[in-house]
Design a protein that fits this description.
The longest helix is centred in the first third of the chain and has 33 residues. Helices cover 83% and strands 0% of the residues. The chain is globular, with a radius of gyration of 18 Å. It contains 8 helices and no strands.
Amino acid sequence: MSDTQQKTVQRAGLYVIGAALSFTVMGGVIKELGHMGLDTMSTVWLRNVCGLALLLPWMVRAGLAGMRTSHPGTHAVRDLTGLSAMFAFFYAIAHIPLAEAVLLTYTSPLFVPIIARIWLGETIPRHTWLAIGVGFIGLIFILRPGLGIFRPAAWIGWSSGFFAAFALTAIRRLSNAGEPDVRTVFYFALTGT
């Protein structure tokens, strides 16, 4: 591997660590806001307003012409499913232990191949079906059904994983269509706000 490639990999690793740290801090803040009595709707709105404010420099640089899209339907699917995932995740964080809420949201990779098969027509290899099945069985063992997985808040947490998978599949579709990332994030933050 060349020096340039090593630096690129290191930089990408730092971005991943930074994103994971930000996600962890956000989860802790959301949990605390829930303990303070802030409702889920207000928390989702606050998160999206902050996101929209952070996007402002890129939006200004792109201008109004840079925000036009020829894929409004796919953006609508991405925005509504992403927002549903966010609502469900934030609700779960406020009502069940943080580790369980995060684990339930991380079920999205189990749903992505199924949604991609139905929506994008992608084939699912046999070994992927096996991995999906093992993933769901493992999740059930980790959450120990006798200890509350069937609580409504846990089901809402599961739905956050499903909706996140749908949003991720929509993002892939937008990316394959050539939509810039900033436009995709902008419409999501705008819809959420």
